Amino acid sequence: METLKRTKIKALLASEPGVEVLAKGWVRTKRGNKQVKFIALNDGSTINNIQIVANTELFDEELLKRITTGASLSVKGQLVASMGSGQAVEIQATEMEVLGDCDPMRFPLQKKDTTLEYLRSVAHMRLRTNTFGAVLRIRNAMAFAIHKFFNEKGFVYLHTPLITESDAEGAGDMFQVTTLDLKNIPLDKKGNVDFSRDFFGKKTSLTVSGQLEGELGATAVGEIYTFGPTFRAENSNTPRHLAEFWMIEPEMAFYDLQDNMDLKFLNDKYDDGLIERMQGVLGIPFQKVTYTEAVEILEKAIADGVKFEYPVHWGTDFQSEHERYLVEKHFGKPVILIDFPKDIKAFYMKQNEDGRTVRGMDVLFPKIGEIIGGSEREASLEKLEKRIEELGMSRKNLEWYIDTRRYGSVPHSGFGLGFERLLLFVTGMANIRDVIPFPRTPKNAEF
Ligand code: ATP
Ligand code: MN
Fold first, then answer.
1. How far, in Å, from the CA of 344 to the mean position of ligand 1?
2. Ligand 1 proximity of 232 Cβ (cutoff 6 Å)
3. What's residue 56's pLDDT?
4. From the CA of 233, how far away is ligand 1's center (Å)?
5. Which atom of ligand 1 is nearest to the CA of 422?
6. Rg of the chain on CA atoms, in Å
7. What are the start-end ranges of the E strands in 138-196?
8. Helix, strand, or coil here: 359?
């Protein structure tokens, strides 16, 4: 059998009939009768299967029994025009070999139980389903498109560290990184953990964002982007939060908030409004609105009888229900919120003249809420130092960052785009756990 070279199913399905071929793959289904078996074979090269037609007279009964859903199979035969509908060609099998058996009693992907919730519990196998095969391919295509986009714009892809000693972002709780023996933690004279004995000689964590280092890159080569994993130990059991997610963070020197907003980025069985929603986003300019105006809109909505679970008043951070009201009900298009109260945003955002708001910028999308968080950064050394002091942050670990304002400070801006939130939008999936192959959420780090 091996003298013939294997052809991928994607290529076979596009081939002219009349040749002898060798295909390998996993059995999706087997049906038929005493005379003939029809086997749907998939090798991952395409979401489509090729049909194998096996005349039972040519094959051992034992072999045919072993051809079950999930088993891997090598098939030699004649590529012929298909008589059935649904495919142009099929393989008339002459030789078959089971490469790996699959116990049909134990195989976790049974026809009957394929809810997305169930599939999460078998995430090691769910990539073999059509749904996750499609998500995985879209994820791959999107990652490639993002790199291509920034590459063509002249941005430098900067690799920022995952382990960091700065806990200053305020973006969320951090996962600590340590090699200390948790059963025997060294303490200093005051009874605090003695991190000088830890691996890095300091308290370290997994990063919540590559931005601070990204700014170092932008103030050297002009325009950079990061694209890597970020970690947040926030106990948010929502359909939009992961403990480990991927973020794209462009950072641009000589960009103010307006330039930042102008940087243009980018129906299936789960969501038939998908195409319409995508066209809604791609075709029209986003609605720009200040935080203060948005509060007024929401307060008016409440006065008119709209019910929210969480209260709204000037100074609170919006919940996703508020964000979605603005996008889906009030404006009916994506919204760019700007000029937030400084107390709900990070220390590095550029302070407005009013003394109480900062040049932040969140982009809100239909069904998802916040998809991008960004800002113009505070370029003034004096203002930045004052803010760090006001917030009672430790300067010690931040001197390197403050140096960007000390040595040739420039106006600059950037944002973070959550890759999985973008994928929610593009795929139409409803839960963020279903757009990453192996989701990490509170109490879940399996696989
Ligand atoms: P949220 O209010 O939704 O928790 P955030 O304000 O914490 O978001 P940022 O710190 O601005 O978000 O992060 C930038 C982007 O990263 C967000 O706009 C979002 O797309 C994404 N993001 C943030 N936290 C998570 C998370 N836990 N899981 C997945 N994506 C996230
Ligand atoms: Mn958050």
1. 14
2. yes
3. 97
4. 12
5. 20
6. 27
7. 156-157, 163-164, 176-177
8. strand
Amino acid present at 121: S
- Centroid of ligand 1 to alpha carbon of 228 (angstroms): 14
Residue 171 CA to ligand 2 centre (angstroms): 6
Q: Is the distance from the beta carbon of residue 415 to the nearest atom of ligand 1 less than 6 Å?
A: no
Looking at residue 212, its pLDDT comes to 94
**What letter represents residue 312's amino acid?**
V
Query: What is the per-residue pLDDT across 287-324, written as a single tens digit (0 to 9) for each?
Result: 999 999 999 999 999 999 999 999 999 999 999 999 99
Question: Tens digits of per-residue pLDDT, 167-212?
Answer: 656 656 899 999 999 999 999 999 999 999 999 999 999 999 999 9
Q: Which domains does the chain have, with CATH numbers?
A: 9-100 (2.40.50.140), 130-173+208-434 (3.30.930.10)
Kindly give the number of the ligand 1 atom that is closest to the alpha carbon of 371: 20
**Cut 0.85: pTM above it:** yes
Integer angstrom CA distances of residue 26 from 10, 183, 413: 14, 47, 49
Ligand 1 lined by 373 (C-beta under 6 Å): yes
Handedness of CA 115, 118, 119, 120 (dihedral sign): positive
Cα–chain-centroid distance for residue 279? 21
Q: What would the pLDDT profile of 330-383 be if each residue is shown by its tens digit?
A: 999 999 999 999 999 999 999 999 999 999 999 999 989 999 999 999 999 999
Select from 208, 245, 370 the residue to mutate for testing ligand 1; criterion: most ligand atoms less than 8 Å from CB: 370
CB 78 within 8 A of CB 20: yes
